Structure formats: structure tokens, C-alpha cells
């Protein structure tokens, strides 16, 4: 037998018994020279299933994702099912608080609520600016992991520490290429929407319910957290075996996203220009537009939103949380598009009958 002395900071890793007085600061290990056991090269299934492991359902990170998924389920109910019920009711008989919370243009018949439960519609620019900052932070956090070993801004490490590490799970659902592509798509979309709301869109003087204003922050925070939670760390990403069709899937999804991105920009510019003359806003009234996708559907901006989120779903194929995100977005966009289509038909007597609400030739 021989005695080996180890530094105090290794005690918590290997275990051992303290010897000597309280000031000795040393731990004694008795190791047999001929019967040493090699350190395990893998993690046993018992450890990976323990409550303290990030893959365990009882781990705080898993519980956080359960909360995010539940939030999207709740938002789907509150912003899709409930407004449909309210739309079928007589708006004059609704409680004032409910009418103000759910005020959103055509859903409430164009009413202009006021008070603490509603905000100006132009405030949408706030959560788009917030989403841009958050998406850039997410992209930096991923880049700090995947660009390891190269000089990188300190801000990337800060974003990773405070944004990705608290939600990251070890059981990744897609590749680092997919996660990086999705993060880049978020940056592009949020940047364009921020620019549009500040410099392109012409907002009417109506107000929107506080519910809808808050939903913007909830949606983008939840969507970006969902993206990061299932993204792989560099060590895992290096061991992943991507399928042969993944490059094709990513390329196809990015091409579809790029087309929808461009068409949504064109639709939003056309909607804004219809209210201007010589670069100056002359009206806030809705105008029946023609040309491009407007000849096919009443809300091209919502059709392209549905397509872009479908492209995100294709990029993040295999993710467990994105289906909750897309259920909320698609449900919300379809609902508003259908309500808007009926409103246009009532307002314009000569509205084209062949024009659909959101899906060309179908719906």
C-alpha cells in the first residue's frame, strides 16, 4: 500500500476521506498499485436517466421546455379558438375588458378601444426590435460553440452563457448545420420585419389588445428558446451522422424560404404604398389591391408567413418542440386571413370571386 496526496479541489470529483486536522487541507487515497480500474469511457444508461441529467424529464431544462410547449398550446387556444368565439358573438354585448384585450382590427369590427388593456397598433415595432436583438444573440451563442478554436467576439460567449446554456439539452434533435441555418433565417426575418415596421408599414390609428401585443414577445422568445434547446453542442455535432438527404432538405427549405421572404416584402411594400401619394401618407383606409399574389389571395403576407414557418419546420426536421410553434403560427395566420377575406368581401362589392383567403385556388 502507498499513500498519494491530492489537491483539495479534486476531492469533489473522486471522493475520499480527510485525514489529519481541519487545517491540513489534504485528502488521503489508498490505491493498490496492481489493481487500478480504468476510468469509464462512456456514460452509463443509469447516469443518463438520473434526475440530475439534462435528458431526464425531471431535469429543470426539460421542465422549462415543457413550460414553453405548454405556453404555445395555451397561445393557440387563446389567440385562435377564443377570437373565433368572440367573432361569432355580438361585440356590443362583450365585457369591456374582454373587448379591449382582444381588440385587433377586423376581429372586433374595427373598433378603437382605449385604456390600459390596449396599445397603439404601431407598437408592434417594439417586439420586432426585441426579436431582432434576441435572434442575433441566439446566432452569436451558436457561433461561439461551433466556431470553437478560432478568435471570436467576447459577446458570443456572453450570449451563449446567458441564453443557450440555461436551456440547452444534451439530447439534440437536429444537426449543427440545421440549427445554424434556422438561426440565420430568424435574423433575416426579424431584421426585415423590424425595418418594415419602422420605415415601410403605414399603421392605422387603431389600437390592439394588450393580449396581442404581449403575444409577440411570447412567440419570438418561445420560438428561439425552442430552437436553441435542441441544438447540438460541438462535441455531439462532430459525432452525428447526417442523413444523405439532409443537404437536399436544407437547400430546398432555404430556397422556399427565400422566395416567401421576397414575396412577403413585396406584399408589405404594396400595402404601404397604396396608402401613400408622393411618399406621403394620404389615407389609412384599406384598399383593394391587384397584381402578383394579390390576384390569388386576399392576404399574401399571411400566405408567405405560413410558407416561411413551413420552411423552418423542414430545416429543423426531427425537433420535438417546433410543432407547437408552427401550430400557433399557422392557426393564427389562417384565422386572421379568413376573417380579413370575409371583411374584404363585405366592404368591396366588386371583390373578385376567384380570389381566395390564404391558399390559392383552395381556401
Tell me what the structure shows.
- With 363 residues, this protein is mainly alpha-helical.
- Helix content is 54%, strand content 6%.
- It has 12 helices and 7 strands.
- It has helices at residues 11-14, 45-48, 60-87, 96-101, 124-146, 154-164, 176-199, 210-229, 234-239, 246-273, 300-315, 322-347, and strands at residues 2-6, 17-18, 27-31, 118-120, 207-209, 276-277, 280-281.
- Strands 1-3-2 form a 3-stranded antiparallel sheet, with no helix packed on it. A two-stranded antiparallel ribbon has the order 4-5. The protein has a two-stranded antiparallel ribbon with strand order 6-7.
- A hairpin with a 2-residue loop joins strand 6 (276-277) and strand 7.
- The longest helix has 28 residues, at 60-87.
- The chain is globular, with a radius of gyration of 27 Å.
- Residues 4-56 have low confidence and may be disordered.
Number of helices: 12
What do the pLDDT scores average to?
A: 77
Give helix and strand order, one letter per element, not per position.
EHEEHHHEHHHEHHHEEHH
Major beta sheet summary: 3 strands, antiparallel
* C-alpha Rg (nearest Å): 27 Å
Class of secondary structure makeup: mainly alpha
Helix content: 40-55%
Number of strands: 7
Strand order of the largest sheet: 1-3-2
Strand content: 5-15%
Q: Gap between N and C termini, in Å? A: 82 Å
In terms of per-residue confidence, which ranges show pLDDT below 50 for 5 or more consecutive residues?
4-56
The global form is globular
